[in-house]
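User: quick one
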Amino acid sequence: EDQVTQSPEALRLQEGESSSLNCSYTVSGLRGLFWYRQDPGKGPEFLFTLYSAGEEKEKERLKATLTKKESFLHITAPKPEDSATYLCAVQAVRGSTLGRLYFGRGTQLTVWP
Amino acid sequence: DAGVTQSPTHLIKTRGQQVTLRCSPKSGHDTVSWYQQALGQGPQFIFQYYEEEERQRGNFPDRFSGHQFPNYSSELNVNALLLGDSALYLCASSLAGGAGELFFGEGSRLTVL
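Assistant: Done. Structure below.
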C-alpha cells in the first residue's frame, strides 16, 4: 500500500536557525513526489515536484531533495513568514497519467523572531 | 489567470442533510480531483473526474458523489451527512498528460452539527 510519513509532526525554530523536514515514502513505482505549503484554513500551495533520486530543487530559502526512500525539505535561515504546515505527497505510476496523490500528515513549522 | 475557485467557502449543515460544493478549475486544466482534509490530517483522495467521468475513487462511501460539466467545472455532493463529514473539502485541478502537478483551491469548510 502506498504510504507517506512525515517527521517531525511539529518543529519550532528561531529565526535564522536552519533545519530539515523529512518525508519517507513507500510506493510501487514513483511518478513524482510533491511538496506543498499550507497556511491555516487555506488550500495547499504547490512548491516543488521531484521525479527521480538525486534530483534537487530550490525556491528562496527552501531546497527539496529526493532519494529512493525519502525526501527532505531544507529550510535555510527561516523567517517568521515561513511558518506554515508543509505537506509531502507521492504520485504512483498506475499506467495512467491521472494519478491521485497520497499525502502525509504534514509538519507544522513555527518560526519565531 | 484565475486559479482554482471553490464555493461556498464556509457552510454549516445538520446531520442527515445534503450538501453540494462547487469548483472551477484553473484555466487550461481539464481534470478535477476532490480531497477531504480533517483537522490535523493530510488531504485524503475522494475521487477524480476527467472527460465528465469518474476515473478514480478513494475509500469513500457512495454518499459521496460528483459530477463534471463540459466546461470542466465540477460538483461534489454528500448525502445523509454525518458528524464525521465535518472537514475542509479541497478541489484540485490538473492537466491530463501533464507533469502531474495538482493546483488546489482554498477549500470549502463544512461543519456538520
